[in-house]
Write a structure and sequence with these properties.
By secondary structure, this protein is of the alpha+beta class. It has 19 helices and 15 strands. Helix content is 42%, strand content 14%. The chain is rod-shaped, with a radius of gyration of 47 Å.
Length: 513
């Protein structure tokens, strides 16, 4: 007859009858079980079927500090990296993780679905959720940086780089470095729905950032954002980010970084190390699979690198300027109050209204609050005000007359701002003189007037004007002419008398007339 299995109900009934004071023989007879079973339960040798079983495991398992392994696993470190450090010389990885999950079943991973990719077709990118830190040796200040991860879906080749922040400029720079590292461009790039990549999310027609669109167009890749709240749409990037971060933090857990460059050097070494390791499913390394199959399927890199540009919206202020990155750039004054689009390149700032480019300036990267002005953009009164500078007045004076330029230069040497108004007046009077008499005669009069003012140390605008007026009079002085009037019409001047009209009239009388 087969031996009956001890059930939970029978175990609880034996405990209850034992509490009532019955003997082992009576309990065994009533429940039809052996007295040894009742004795084992009474002495504690037999536990309830519901009690967790203590797994002793093989001999190597007794030599491993499972409490320390459980602590490191709870900190998020990868189980495979813990095995490499603590039990690689004792057993294989498969035996290690089986024993670990028997002892700690709460750490079992969820079920996953395998996806198939064609070579060179997809690339998934993402920022790591957690930041890395470096400490300034001089000040002791702690700086946080963000880590960018990109992975080719077929070979699962990993690229990673750390940036100061997650702004659009660093997002584009990370893509450029990633494509160069891959040696080509995938057909589709799959990012997350972050603001630096996707301006407005839509399930079917998401609006991408303009700078991101230009970058994708330059490299010839299609940007297809993953759906919001669907991390499995880019499961490889999510998995790689977590695995890379865990391995990196585990590897450098006792190291303090002192600069961003040092972090990037460590990241590159870690990525190369992971890419050279044999993949558990491919049985070859990621680098070998990429070199042998995927590299030649990628699109070629463009002949020149992408020049980053950023687009911003702005309004033209009443003073004809738009404020961009704490600096101000001029716009033609007829567009005051309009909404414009500003394109920030690495060297230039372009301002557009629709498809029309209103202005282009060199990008100023210095101090904040700088006014970058094109005088042609300003109205006449503002242009006059901005042109009132010692340098501008001096250049105008030298153009009109060298002697006048030398005079104004000497005035500016003494006191530039104190003599600025006087120099403006001299230039204005000189320009009027040249416009009246011409370049040659006007310059001659100006030189004479300048010489007289310097001789008598009387450099004044009214005196300069009177001198020029006197020189003009000297040029147009003519002899007095006798006035001969017509006797028939004495109101007409400069008329010769008709023959016979004044005959017989004395000459003196004619002159008196």
């Amino acid at each position: 007859m087969a031996r009956m299995k001890l059930t939970v109900m029978k175990y609880e009934e034996i405990k209850r009858l034992k509490g009532l004071g019955l003997s082992d023989r009576q309990i065994a007879k009533s429940l039809r079980c052996s007295r040894n079973t009742v004795k084992g339960i009474r002495e504690g040798g037999i536990q309830s079927p519901e009690a967790p079983k203590v797994i002793e495991g093989p001999i190597w398992a007794k030599q491993v500090n499972w409490d320390e392994i459980c602590r490191e696993r709870s900190l998020g470190y990868e189980l495979k990296y813990i095995w490499e450090e603590r039990a690689k010389d004792r057993t294989t990885y498969s035996n290690f993780w089986k024993q670990f999950y028997r002892k700690f079943p709460q750490y079992r991973d969820a079920m996953v679905v395998h996806r198939e990719f064609k070579p060179g077709e997809y690339c998934e990118v993402d920022w790591a959720g957690k930041h890395l830190e470096w400490v300034s040796p001089r000040t002791g200040e702690i700086h946080q940086v963000s880590m960018f991860i990109g992975v080719l879906c077929f070979s699962q080749l990993i690229f990673s780089v750390a940036k100061e922040n997650q702004k659009s400029r660093h997002w584009i720079e990370a893509h450029q470095e990633m494509y160069e590292y891959f040696g080509g461009v995938p057909h589709v790039t799959v990012p997350d729905c972050l603001k630096t990549g996707v301006t407005k999310y839509h399930l079917y027609d998401p609006e991408l950032n303009e700078s991101y669109i230009q970058c994708a167009t330059h490299y010839g890749t299609a940007v297809v954002p993953a759906r919001a709240y669907h991390p499995k749409d880019k499961a490889l990037a999510e998995n790689t980010v977590g695995r890379f971060m865990r391995y990196f933090k585990f590897k450098y857990r006792n190291h303090t970084f002192c600069s961003l460059a040092e972090i990037n050097l460590a990241i590159r070494e870690t990525a190369d190390e992971l890419n050279r390791k044999p993949h558990s499913r491919f049985r070859v390394s990621r680098s070998d699979r990429w070199e042998a199959i995927e590299k030649k399927q990628l699109k070629p890199l463009p002949p020149h690198a992408y020049e980053y540009s950023e687009w911003k919206n702005a309004r033209v202020h009443p003073d004809c300027y738009v404020a961009v990155e704490s600096n101000l750039y001029s716009v033609p004054h007829i567009h005051r109050g309009k909404e414009v689009r500003v394109r920030l390149g690495s060297k230039h700032v372009e301002i557009f209204s629709g498809l029309e480019r209103l202005a282009i300036h060199g990008r100023y990267m210095g101090k904040k609050g700088k006014y970058i002005t094109d005088p042609n953009h300003l109205p006449e009164n503002a242009k006059t005000y901005y042109e009132t500078t010692p340098q501008n007045v001096l250049s105008q004076a030298k153009y009109l007359n060298p002697d006048l330029g030398a005079l104004i230069d000497s005035l500016f040497q003494k006191d530039a701002l104190g003599n600025l108004r006087r120099a403006q007046g001299l230039v204005r009077v000189s320009r009027k003189e040249i416009n009246t008499l011409g370049k040659l005669e006007g310059a001659k009069n100006i030189s004479r007037a300048v010489e007289i003012m310097q001789r008598f140390s009387k450099i004044r605008v009214p005196y300069f004007r009177e001198l020029l007026k006197h020189y003009r009079k000297e040029k147009f002085v003519t002899e007095n002419k006798n006035i001969v009037r017509d006797l028939n019409n004495p109101m007409l001047r400069y008329q010769k008398p008709k023959p016979g009209v004044c005959q017989g009239i004395p000459q003196n009388d004619i002159e008196q007339i």
